[in-house]
Write a structure and sequence with these properties.
- The protein is mainly beta and about 120 residues long.
- The strands form two sheets. Strands 2, 4, 5, 6, 9, 10 and 11 form a seven-stranded mixed beta sheet that branches. Strands 1-3-8-7 form a four-stranded antiparallel beta sheet, with no helix packed on it.
- A hairpin with a 4-residue loop joins strand 7 and strand 8.
Length: about 120
């Protein structure tokens, strides 16, 4: 069983930074590709970034490229999303997810956390 828990969200001003963490209680995450998504009310879940199980390869959405960085520490069974240069349009609930391969599509991920709110004030 994989239970994912996100942390690190909060309120930040435009231009600020946050680092989100995603940890697993139970089964190790070393086998899984990991992704970060975000969602705002009334909109579909949006892909942010994904990373391979080894951590050697990753990619991110154009909307966050150059500002957000995904990384993982398999020794700590954790995945991170470093967010710099935050903008009001980054305000959303952020979710981490685990799956068998890196993917843009939420349906390709088997396990999800409950989300952490990120609010960027202007």
């Amino acid at each position: 069983q994989v239970q994912l828990v996100e942390s690190g969200g909060g309120l930040v001003q435009t231009g600020g930074s946050l680092r989100l963490s995603c940890a697993s209680s139970g089964r190790t995450l070393n086998w899984s590709a990991m992704g970060w998504f975000r969602q705002t009310p009334g909109k579909e879940r949006e892909f942010i970034a994904a990373i391979s199980s080894s951590g050697f390869t990753s990619y991110s959405a154009d909307s966050v490229k150059g500002r957000f960085t995904i990384s993982r520490d398999n020794a700590k069974n954790a995945v991170y999303l470093q967010m710099n240069g935050l903008k009001p349009e980054d305000t959303a609930v952020y979710y981490c997810a685990a799956g068998s391969s890196r993917s843009y599509y939420p349906s390709d991920y088997n396990y999800w956390g409950q989300g952490t709110q990120v609010t960027v004030s202007s």
